[in-house]
Every structure is written in C-alpha cells, then in structure tokens.
Amino acid sequence: MRLSRYFMPILKENPKEAEIVSHRLMLRAGMIRQQSQGIYSWLPLGKRVLDKVNAIIREEQNRAGAIELSMPTLQSAELWQESGRYDAYGKEMLRIKDRQDRPMLYGPTNEEMVTDIFRSSIKSYKDLPLNLYHIQLKFRDEIRPRFGTMRSREFMMKDAYSFDLTREGAEHSYNKMFVAYLRTFDRLGLRAIPMRADTGPIGGKLSHEFIILADTGESEVFCHKDFVDFDIPGEHTDFDSVEGLQAIFDKWTSLYAATSEMHDEAAFNAVPEGDRLSARGIEVGHIFYFGTKYSEPMGAKVQGPDGKEHFVHMGSYGIGPTRLVPAIIEASHDDNGIIWPASVAPFDIVVINMKAGDQACDDTCELIYAALTKAGKDVLYDDTDDRAGTKFATADLIGVPVQIIAGPRAVANGEVEVKDRKTGARETMTIEAAINRFVA
Ligand code: ATP
Ligand code: MG
Fold first, then answer.
1. Which of 42, 97, 364, 410 has its CA 20 to 30 A from that of 213?
2. Would the CB of 208 count as within 6 Å of ligand 1?
3. What's the gap between Cα 37 and its chain centre?
C-alpha cells in the first residue's frame, strides 16, 4: 500500500475526549472514528488490525471444532418472549418496530436465535456435540459507553454456542473453548488469565472470564502470580481427548484467580504473600455453561440412546474483538505510539522514503516495496513528500513492527537502515540483505 494513495487520517494533537492511552492512540493513528455515542467506524488501518484479530479467533475456533455460520443483527422479539428475556433484559436492549409494527430488537447476544436454529433441525443425539459460532455486531445500550471501542454500544463479538446431550459432554465442550481461548489470546500477544465468574442461578464452577492485566482495566482482579508464566497448550493439542483437556483446565484453575465480584479474601490470603497479584484487568472473553436454561423453555431436545427425549445442555462463549484491539494497545505501546505484536500488525513492514523525488531513494524504495510485496508481506510504503521527522513519527505511532528507512546518504552506498519498532534497534545493511531478511 502506498501511503500517498491510502486513507490514514493521522491526528497531530492529542484528542481531548480520550481518557486512556489506547483510545488516544487509536484516534491519533486514524484507526476509528466515533459516529455517535459509543458507535464507531473502523477506518482502513483499524479494519486491518480487526480483520487479523478475527482471523486468529476464527482459526482457533475452527481448530477446537466449532463451526462458523452467520446470524443477523436484527432479531424478532418473539424468540425472546419464548425464553422470557424480552422483558428481563431491560434498557440495554435496543427495541425497534418494523413498518408492520412488529417488535424487533438489535441483538445484544444470540442464545435464543441459535437455539431456534438448533431445534429446527437437530433431533438426535447422534448429531451432537455441536458448537456453532459467528463473529457479528451486537448492540447494548450501555449506560456509560467509554474508552473508545473498549466499551461501546455497538461492538463486535465472536459468540459460540455448544450443544450436548449430557452435562459431562457439555463440560468437554466447555474445556475445548477454554483451551481455544488460552491459545487465541496468546497468539494475539496477550496474557489472559481465566478467572472464576459468577454462575448465578445455574450454579457450579463453569463460568470464566478471561482477563488481561492492565492499569486502565475496569475490573479489580486478584490472582496467583504464577499464571503469568504458565505454558500455553500447543497447536497439536488433541481437542477430542477428554482427559487431556481436563488436565489443562485443572492446571489453569488450580491457583487462585478471581475478579472482585467473586473475590474471597481468606482464600487469597492463603496464597503466600510474595505470590499474590492484585491488579486491574480488562475482560476480553467470557465462557459460560448454563445447562438447559434456554433449551427447556424453547423446547430444544434430542432423542437420546435410551429412546427418550432430552433437553440439550448448552454453553456460550464470547470474545470481544473490538475490545481486544484497544486491549492489545493497552498492553503494548510506548511514548511514541503503538507497538503491534507481529500477528495482528496492520502491516508487516513500513518502507520509509526519506527523500521522495530523489531518484536513487525512489528506485531503492520501489525495489524493496515490490520484492517484499511479492514475497507476500503486507507493506506500507511511505512515498509522501512529508518531512523525514514526520514520517518517523507516523511510523512509530502506527506501530508497524519493522521500518526500512531509505535516506540519500545510505542509498548512495547501496544501503538502508532497518529499525525494530519495539526495541528501537537500528541496523544498517545492504538493500539486498534487508530484502532477504524478510523474504527468507
Ligand atoms: P462487561 O462485564 O465488560 O460489560 P459482559 O459480561 O457484559 O461484559 P459478555 O456478555 O460476557 O460481556 O460478552 C462477551 C464479550 O464481549 C466480553 O468478554 C467482551 O470482550 C465483549 N463485550 C461485552 N460488552 C462489550 C462492550 N460494551 N463493548 C465492547 N466489547 C464488549
Ligand atoms: Mg462477562
């Protein structure tokens, strides 16, 4: 992508409305734009990051055996009347009437709709287990939308829903998502710690919030510090192994970890003092087993091996991609801007032409840009006629992991500079060496 032909509206000034660093940087880097309170456009740079986040989420959901579909944002109120949640949900739900005066709503979540899809076609335990997911916009009329897309009214959610014949089956389905979440957040460059969450009237222990530690987080959290270094399950984890997944779950729930709602002071104080971590956190995911809460009122049942009908056991599993993007920034930035983990960076490399219009600089940059693009890299080429200082500041702000800098003096020697955004380390090398480093 040539910057001269791209749309990346950088802000020079710090936007006054932004209270936290991720919001400030997303606005300054031209990633998002607020359209009305808590409702955002994702501008091209932001959209690239969001797409990469979603691609990783999707890969890990698929690996765990979940199947993607797409459900609409607008839902009929009837389904929610069946489950009893139409009246229970309150003001967070945006209620709409269509031209025939039929009550509709902008979905805040999809348990009812997916249960309806399930009951319309699945009749036998032989079709289970099943886990259906989509990545779709949601709307919740939050009382206090804030921090940009961290807490917005319209936001994206990956929501998965599992269906099993028995509670034991549902526990295995839960563990699949538990492990998929550990892998997903790790690949996004984050350390997310699963913390016990309230199960309400359902009871039991099967509800976890995945929390990232960050000073600007909205939740107060308490955990054992060893979680920070626990190993993440590998990509060859056997998701069909009931014992294998249970062992991972047991390990990751063996130490103390709770948000303030579930905090047990005495249990926390039993952790040796030097191992206690009390911090603030951002909830980026939430998984929940809720048994037959929706299948019973909505009549979602299958015939079991015993020939009888059974209401299916369900769970739901959410991740917030539009919250994850700012969460990644909260975890990875410096005074100059964002530092993207390579896995979600909007571009892999930015090529900076320090003197656009200078034949040797132009030729060198074109050569590098073409070679890296051909090798499948996402390259941003800063071919604008801005001052070099402005270009450096922009490159640092938008956080692309690698900068290749071509200035007249180095280019005259057949050389360029390669800068690592994270460490700031700079190396001078031949043009060929610079290309080979990223093509190999
Ligand atoms: P919170 O406690 O932060 O309000 P929640 O418990 O209402 O979240 P869930 O219903 O569990 O959220 O939704 C699943 C995921 O969707 C959350 O873990 C979060 O990542 C994301 N999410 C929820 N609400 C918002 C929001 N208003 N803006 C952005 N992301 C959100
Ligand atoms: Mg939650």
1. 42
2. no
3. 22
349-439 and 7-338 share a CATH fold: no
Closest CA to 130 of 171, 166, 173: 173
Distance 4 CA to ligand 2 centre (A): 42
What string of H, E and C letters represents the secondary structure of 325-348? HHHHHHHCEECCEECCCHHHCCCC
Question: Over the stretch 144-157, which tens digit does the pLDDT of each residue have?
Answer: 999 999 999 999 99
Question: In this predicted structure, what is the pLDDT of residue 419?
Answer: 98
Q: Are 148 and 165 in contact (CB under 8 A)?
A: no
Q: Which ligand is nearest the CA of 155, by number? A: 1
- Which parts of 64-198 fold into alpha helices (H)? 77-83, 85-88, 111-121, 167-187
* Segments making up each domain of the chain, as ranges: 7-338, 349-439
Summarize the confidence of residues 269-296 as an average pLDDT. Answer: 96
DSSP designation for 90: G
322 C-beta closer than 6 A to ligand 1: yes
Residue 267 clears pLDDT 90, i.e. is over it:
yes
Q: Do 187 and 340 meet the contact criterion of CB atoms below 8 Å apart?
A: no
Q: Is this prediction's pTM over 0.85?
A: yes
Task: With cut-offs at 50, 70 and 90, classify the pLDDT of residue 141.
Answer: very high
Q: Report the nearest-CA residue for atom 23 of ligand 1.
A: 320
By CB atoms closer than 10 A (0-12, 13-18, 19+), residue 243 is exposed
The class of domain 349-439 in CATH terms is alpha beta
Q: How confident is the model at residue 328, as a pLDDT?
A: 98
User: What average pLDDT does the structure give for the chain?
Assistant: 97
CB atoms within 10 A of CB 136: 16
Task: Name the one residue in this structure whose structure tokens are 């009237």.
Answer: 201
In a 3-state reduction of DSSP, which class is residue 214? Answer: coil
Question: What's the CATH fold of domain 7-338?
Answer: BirA Bifunctional Protein; domain 2 (3.30.930)
Rounded Cα distance, 57 and 321, in Å: 9
pLDDT at 200 exceeding the cut of 90: no
